[in-house]
Amino acid sequence: TATALGASGLKASAAAYEKFTWISPRGTLEVLDDYPYWSAKKAGYFGDLATDMQPGPSDGTATVKFVDVGQADMG
Question: Is residue 55 packed enough to be buried (19+ CB in 10 Å), middle (13-18) or exposed (0-12)?
């Protein structure tokens, strides 16, 4: 249990996002991979959250590396 591991006083908290960075798994944003995002954005699901959309490298697994090191929130 968490108590047995010495984590009894820890509480999880998440900071609110003000800006969201998404890196495309392709080298361009001119494909429909991001269509679900734009549909949700237009419907108001993200409120006034600023979004930074960036074309990613051509290597499909590279976007995971960007997320891992904190350079992107989603890839």
Answer: middle
Contact 56, 64 (CB under 8 A): no
DSSP states of 20-73 as a string? EEEE-SSS-S-SGGGHHHHHHHHTTTTTT-EEEEE---SSTTHHHHHHHTTS-S
Q: What is the pLDDT of residue 23?
A: 72
Cβ pair 20, 49 in contact under 8 A: yes
Residue 34: burial class (beta carbons within 10 Å; 0-12, 13-18, 19+): middle
| Sequence ranges of the domains in the chain | 19-56
pTM of the model: 0.39
